[in-house]
Amino acid sequence: MASKIRPGDLVTVRYRVFAGKEVVDASEEPFTFEVGSGRFLPPVEKALIGHQPGERIVVFVPPEEHYGPYDPKKLQLIAVEKLPPNVNPGDVVRVQDEMGIVHPAVLRRRDEEVAWVDLNHPLAGKLLRFEIEILDVTPKEAASEKKEEPGRDAQTAPSKEVTDKALETPAQGRENA
Known about the structure:
It is built from three helices and nine strands, in the order E-E-E-H-E-E-E-E-E-E-H-H. The longest helix is centred in the last third of the chain and has 11 residues, at 158-168.
């Protein structure tokens, strides 16, 4: 009988992440990580516990457990000259705050002299749906040996991939999915 997932086990999965009907991230290759290591969002890791290879699960993650609720105070007015040339509403731009820190923002509106930029993360305020296929489980007792094998290093964290993918494409609405 296949091993049920416990904290500390190495788990190999394939996953897709949806915000509404839009796929915002997906594993191109199987992804292996240690359960409880923080490589996935905590509610996703917790939901895997007790499942076994061959199962498919769906996990819903509310905004409060990823990028937070949409904050209308993060919609800011800036001078058009602070924008790069040839950007249009929906494009991701980089804006510098008064402390000199550069932030990604979505250009919402551009007039002749001013522009509205949205500093919320593109997935803020959205319910995320993770569809996960569990491919393999290595019990934590055997996991320490596998962690050190060449080619078994942890890959880029899915939560980071979600961030990067969402910033590559223009954010469409801000309604909850």
